[in-house]
């Protein structure tokens, strides 16, 4: 095996478990982390717990260019959003909540990278599914998707953390959906693994 093939094999072996590094670091309140569902449909709850939102990781380490977002200001909140576009190497995450009682739920989610954009309207969620949506997940599209009860639904972002107070609206499929995009943070130890692979290759040549 030549040195290039050895490096590739070494990286594949060592980086495979690191690729599973989750970028959702913690969550508090009425939200739970789950695996991406097979289908995102109206009138569905994915937490299996009444009045609890679901959060999951979507695409990780994907390179995007000029993807429209409804909020790009950090710190910022849904009461004073600055719309814009984002580019770069990013991680994507999805928050989904089904309205049931009409009583607000509250909570927070902290990610490994800084939040650089949030999409919460169907006109920004739909176009971003192809690049940022979870592989193998079928997302419903069109009006009614996103954040609909503007009088009661609210979220804020500060650095790596999103906090929320959500109600949803029965007139709009009972759901609130947010796509949260963060700066990509490589898995811990990735640089060290690369260094070890290169060192081993040099020793083989010697």
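-> sequence recovered:
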């Amino acid at each position: 095996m030549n040195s290039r093939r050895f490096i590739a094999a070494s990286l594949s072996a060592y980086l495979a478990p690191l690729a599973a590094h989750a970028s959702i670091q913690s969550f508090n309140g009425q939200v739970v982390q789950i695996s991406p569902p097979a289908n995102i449909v109206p009138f569905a709850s994915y937490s299996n717990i009444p009045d609890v939102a679901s959060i999951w990781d979507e695409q990780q380490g994907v390179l995007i260019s000029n993807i429209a977002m409804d909020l790009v200001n950090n710190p910022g909140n849904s009461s004073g959003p600055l719309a814009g576009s984002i580019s770069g190497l990013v991680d994507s995450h999805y928050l989904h909540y089904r309205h049931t009682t009409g009583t607000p739920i509250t909570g927070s989610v902290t990610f490994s990278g800084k939040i650089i954009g949030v999409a919460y309207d169907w006109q920004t969620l739909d176009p971003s599914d192809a690049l940022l949506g979870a592989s193998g997940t079928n997302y419903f599209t069109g009006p009614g998707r996103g954040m609909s009860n503007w009088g009661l639904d609210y979220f804020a972002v500060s650095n790596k953390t999103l906090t929320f107070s959500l109600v949803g609206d029965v007139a709009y499929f009972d759901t609130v959906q947010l796509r949260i995009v963060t700066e990509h943070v490589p898995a811990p130890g990735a640089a060290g693994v690369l260094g070890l692979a290169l060192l081993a290759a040099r020793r083989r040549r010697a």
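Residues 7 and 198 are 7 Å apart (CA to CA).
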